Amino acid sequence: MVLELMKSHASVRHYDGQPLTREQVSELIEAAQMAATSHFVQTYSVVWVTDEEKRAALGELSNNPLQMKTAGAVLLMCADYRRLTHASDMHNEPIVYDLAENLIVAVTDVGLMAQNLALAAESKGYGICYIGGVRSNIEKISELVGLPKGVFPVYGLTLGVPVETNEVKPRLPVEAILHENTYDAEKYAELLPAYDETIHVYYEKRSSNQKSTTWTKQMADFLKAPRREEISAYLKKQGFEMK
């Protein structure tokens, strides 16, 4: 059942190394493409990294060497206006994609398509993991795979047969996410401490990488300082001025 599959998701970071075939990857991509896309623009491309040296370099640059080495497929999920530029050139029309709206459209398109791909992979028994670490060296990784102007990597996605699977990490309660008619910030005072206790117990009892912390403490530490500040300049270089 689809809902049960979705509720069972846990990131997989160690695979058995068995490679996916072109047919298998193509099947997953084809299913993923059926995700909704704003105005049918389909502002995404996927770079399938099969070259061993490039995979190793991608692992080092994204700080995920084990994933890149053992995954059955390593994919770079990219926002892409280069293909749309070519389409417009065919009709001698200039293309405008330097607005903040265009950036939102592209990142949303990539996210919807990537999650479709992840769900399709998990339905086949594969494990998956998103790798935001590709943004830590976004320019070097773009050069590694030859991304042209109008294209940038949003995250990596590894697929493969799991060697080990983590327990499902408890998400925020629905009540913390769902607001009816009016946004209600008052309820967090009650809901977040209760969720902290749930996460604290989860981290202490899970089978590996136990630790003693809470969700709110993690988020406070994670967001207290700027991260990846170079991305803004890189996006402008790629044509995304965010006007």
Structure description:
This protein has 243 residues and is of the alpha+beta class. The chain has 2 domains: 2-167 and 229-237, 3-Layer(aba) Sandwich (NADH Oxidase), CATH 3.40.109.10; 174-219, no CATH class. 45% of the residues lie in helices and 12% in strands. The chain is globular, with a radius of gyration of 20 Å. The model has no long low-confidence stretch (mean pLDDT 96).
A few lines on this structure:
This is NADPH-dependent oxidoreductase. This protein has 243 residues and is of the alpha+beta class.
- Binned, the helix content reads 40-55%
* Fourth-tier CATH superfamily name of the largest domain: NADH Oxidase
- Named CATH architecture of the largest domain: 3-Layer(aba) Sandwich
Please indicate the percent range of residues in DSSP E strands (runs of 2 or more).
5-15%
Query: How many domains is the backbone divided into?
Result: 2
Structural class: alpha+beta
Under CATH, the topology of the largest domain can be stated as: NADH Oxidase
The pLDDT mean sits at: 96
Number of strands: 4
Shape: globular
Compile the SSE list and pairings.
Elements: H1 2-7, H2 22-32, E1 44-48, H3 52-61, H4 65-70, E2 73-80, H5 82-89, H6 100-123, E3 127-131, H7 138-144, E4 151-160, H8 174-177, H9 188-205, H10 215-223, H11 231-237
Antiparallel strand pairs: 1-2, 2-4, 3-4
Helix pairs in contact: 2-6
Organism: Chryseomicrobium palamuruense
Family: Belongs to the flavin oxidoreductase frp family.
Protein name: NADPH-dependent oxidoreductase
